[in-house]
Amino acid sequence: MKGRLITLEGSEGAGKSSLIRYLREWLEQRGETVVCCREPGGTPTGEAIRRILLDRKRAGMLAHTELLLMFASRAQLLAEVILPALESGKTVICDRFVDASYAYQGGGRGLPEADIAKLEKMVLGQLQPNLTLLLDVPVRLGLKRARRTGKPDRFESEQQAFFERVRKAYLLRAGQYPERIAIIDSAGNQNSVRKQVIAKLEQLA
Fold it and tell me: What pLDDT, in 10s, does the model give residues 60-73?
């Protein structure tokens, strides 16, 4: 691929949304053409799936149903947005990607890693992000931040223990793939987070 894929990961309240806006501006100032997208979502089909996944009325959704919907949205996003952008030499910033499935459906829901890996191979093939920024924040602080923004969705309504498992799974992934996943301490202020992230981007360049 001619372009680069940068993914942002982290559980609720990690600060991904505001950081993506900053990264886009930073990269564009350096002459890069940037495409931003999010998971689940990013396409008309993906956004319809997103509404199902986040709907609090669907509390009884099976973990495997959730996993399959995530990968359905991901497949559509790859085909319509990510792969065309990479092939044309653009930089793609994606708010969550496949590592989120290992964290949320694997760590959080307890699904076997092998099940997720099969879907990853089918949907992604050999594609991996050039860099994954894992915004790590203590669960209690992250939830406090997230719940300031309005009514919680189906994921945000989970108990703290769920997010502790998600965080643990994310950190485990970072330990398994240190050449790709950079842990960013996002418990501090915005400037501190930005400095850490820019340092990683400059290493990538």
Answer: 999 999 999 999 99
